[in-house]
Design brief:
The complex is a heterodimer of chains A (339) and B (796). In chain A, 42% of the residues lie in helices and 21% in strands. Chain A is an alpha+beta fold and 339 residues long. In chain B, the strands form 11 sheets. A 7-stranded mixed beta sheet of chain B has the order 30-34-35-39-38-37-36, with helices on both faces. The chains are: A alpha+beta (339), B alpha+beta (796). Chains A and B meet through α5, β1, β2, β3 and β5 of A and α13, β30, β32, α15 and β34 of B. Bound molecules: zinc ion. Zinc ion binds next to loops of chain A.
Chain lengths: 339, 796
Amino acid sequence: MKEELNKVVVSAKTEIIEAKYMHELMLLKSRYIGKKSILNNFMQKIGSLSKEERPAFGQTLNIAKNQISQLIADQEEKIKELDYNTTLRSESIDLSMPGRKRAKGSLHPITKVWREIEDIFMSMGFEVAEGPDVEDEYHNFDALNTPQDHPARELSDTFYLDDDVLLRTQTSTVQIRTMENHSLPIKIISPGSCYRNENDASHSPMFHQVEALLVDEGVTFTDLRDMLNIFVKEMFGDKIESRIRPHFFPFTEPSAEIDIVCVKCYGEGCNLCKGSGWLEMGGAGLVDPNVLEKLGIDSEKYTGYAFGLGMDRIAMLKYKIPDMRLLFENDIRFLKQFS
Amino acid sequence: MKISYNWLKDYINLKLSPEELKDRMTFAGIEVEAVEQLGKNLKQIKIAKVVKFEQHPNAEKLSVCLVDDGTETKQVICGAPNCKNDIKVAFAGIGTQIQDFIIKKAKLRGELSFGMLCSESELGISTDHDGIMILPEDAPIGTDLASYLGLEDTCYDVEITPNRPDLLGIIGVARDLSALLELPLTLPESKLNASNEPIEDHLSLENKVPELCTRYTARMIKNVEVKDSPDWLKKKLISVGLRPINNVVDITNFVMMEFGHPLHAFDYSLINEKKIIVRSAKENEEFPALDEVTYKLKPEDVVIADENRAIALAGIIGGENSHITSSTKDIVIEAANFLYSSIRKTAGRMNISTDSSYRFERDITDEVAEFASIRACELILEIAGGELLKGKLDSFPTKKGLRKVSIRPSRAKKILSIEISPKQIIEYLTALGLNITKESEDNLEFEIPYYRKDLTREIDLIEEVIRLNGYNNVPTFLKSQNIMNKPVFFARRKIENLLVNYGFSEVVNWNFGDPKDLDKLKVNANDKRRDFAKLKNPLGESFSIMRSMLLPSLLKNALHNINHGQKNFRIFELKKVFTRKNEKLATEKLHLTGLLCGELNPVYWKDNSKQLDFYDVKGITEDILAELKLKNCEYQGSEEPYYQPGMGVDVTISGRLIASLGKIDPKIAVKFDINLPVFAIDIDLETIFTMDLFQDHVFEIIPKFPPVLRDVSFIIAKEHKYADIIETMRKAGKNVISKIVLFDEFAGKNIKDGFHSLTFSLVFSSDTKTLTDEYINNILKKVIKALINSYNTEMR
Ligand SMILES: [Zn+2]
């Protein structure tokens, strides 16, 4: 019986080592050491041996079983490793091929600038106010202290729907409406579309403007300068200084024009700034006491500043867009650049 | 730290209710973290009289009593040996809670019992459980025990901020409240009667670490009688969560609670060589403490020692070898102060926190030691008897004078923005115990009392002024104007971002429009969009109105791009559209219009290309509407004239049109010179933004049990609409089907004409139970039955 067992062990060894697949190995496992296996058969036969032979054979049988189990376990590891390597080979890819992308859209450069301006001002406690594009003459001109015979009121300058209904020429209209409807202090910006009756290479009949207004007790010229400086640096970067020059606007007194250091040459002088090193950005000033008084605000107690900036121009300067017409042509190749 | 309402009343005549006081303290900077009603459990216990007392017929150790609680007479079975006729007892009726159990009607050996006569330990008044509590003869029947014993009180657990060690005692809190509430403060006045025997004859003191022990005083009392404290003292300690031990120890704890300054009492007989030495511990010196732990010390620790051994760990815990016991006769009272950082370090390293270390760690004052010592000695003489020796031992190495700090009323006014007079400032600060020493124009100089170590600069005084004035009495000027509609503002950005992520590029067109464009789109003659806002002086006929629709502009943008070789694009514009009829100005409404052309995805080498179809565009629209949290959207065939017939959908919510989408009718596209299939989405944001959409999302419970998926597949006549089929299944599936997903549709091959095959995946889930197969199969049967009953269908 011992010899018989030895033979079985030898044949099991060769067969196990030759097994290449897991299912093959599992068959061998049940054949040699499973419940109804050859080795179990030997176990049954132990009873036919004499009492003296039993322990020795039992021991031999156990050793044989352990050997075969170990062999199977080793072979299992080998097969797993082989399978793994096969997987690696079959899944090998060209890593240089392009990845799957989704089409990405884009916001219009004006919207990008618009949002950036909103974020700068909102972070400093301003609210964003809105008003109608189609306005009455009162809010667009009268309330803003514009003289009756001012040329801006002419048909050649402003689009009209009726004699006293027009397309707003600036978003200062929103400031008036906000002061009419809310108590002081007021701290707003009003971005939006404006319209002027002109159409050439550097003027679009529709353009985008943002106006800022702060009315409170004790607002001073310093507050205006501070806010302008902060805004310009946030928008264009730390290198861009700003300055203001005396000017005239009907609704501010003192009035000023805002210049910033040329974003192209940083003040050296170039074709963009026509050699001056400065670019004109918009208008500013302290709200004219007349404007406040018309709204029933005590101009002794309250003061305010206002300034207005062209958002299309800011977009062009920021993104170095050479021609204003590109903004409204909506060529997808232009738009996608801003994704 | 715990303080009690009644205890506070010993020093100030509080008129506020306990609840009001809680708020006042919190707003004065003494934050109340918890409030406990003391004696609440005794409120239900009534004083009653035993009117009949008999032996229980079936139990030797029990008696049957009749008790009168003032309203009725009840039978109670009692097992106490001291129960007898004609005594006043503490009676707990049915429903009363005693500790953890509620008294119920009971039958004891055949006799009914309607309540219980309680012992002191059952009531939590003392540890006496030898028998029931017997009350004095004059105790009024029917009164509740809490009011009779005066145990009703409110205990506050307060957080003392680290800058205010003076509040670590109840007197300190009372002082602050007296300033706040403008009530006079009554402090205990102590007088000591000492014998002629000087303390120096019996005890000596050596402070070897003057930098760590900033003050050490010792007084000595001979022949005290150590025993239980009187009731009033026990009650006081219990009211702040301290356990009574014996009269001497209880008095040191009482005084600690009063003054915020911990004391310690030694048994004089256990001090070797009759000498107290304050010194650094030796490396690895062993100290057996009162908590029955032996600590290993380091030289950084300070100990109180005699000639041979440490008898206390300074400021933290006393020694097992020297504490007061019932056999103690002569005692030494220590009142000292130690460097707070040293105490913090030692207590931290050893992980001990005692009422004593808690206070010494917070930098209390050297001077208070003396007051606390006198107060304690006075009470000991009164309660425990004995003779106080003359004098005291005192080491006070660095006695400092009182600090002076100035405040400018103008500065206070400027910083606090309140109108406040110098007079008012003086009133506030003197109420806190400061003394005005100099008063000139805009400058008030104050002498700071020793217990206010935190007041060193002008700004500290300004803080006290505003604290007493009330933080919330400072005027405010700013308010949120709500000029902008923030939900709408951010919803708009969200949709723009979503579209950008779907591959749309935003376009910006002039707001001028051409009225002829509406003819091209076949817009009805009576459509509101034909109420044009016309310009008097336009740039030309094709710019003569303010746009009433965005679509024509987008079709023109499409043409521009197609002409420039771009055939795959998605564009959108989010702008106002204008109409004007009788109104003075115009009606301006925010619209979003999108236009799509070309392939679904960018060309990719692994995928087949696929042209956009209706369902792609519908999916995008659904996502936008979902982003706006719109619910109950209904989709039906569009009435817009410019969609290809059968390929346009209007979206409504309760009958209001909010959007439309579809394929632009090729016949119309061609009028704009477009020969490619284009799809459009138009969303009326103005109408949507008037709806009540912007509620905060409220979390929904995630089902505890995993969902179960089942597929159902059937052939059905094409005339039946998907939306109806889904509704039928949902109804049949009750609340158990949480999701129905169509995952396959096909016609042709093996399927008869006019029919198609649909396969749905049903998700079953429940948040109350695990769904069994049997249960799900049952629901599934119902779903199938409902389908067969409602439609021309057969199962696959
Ligand atoms: Zn330049």
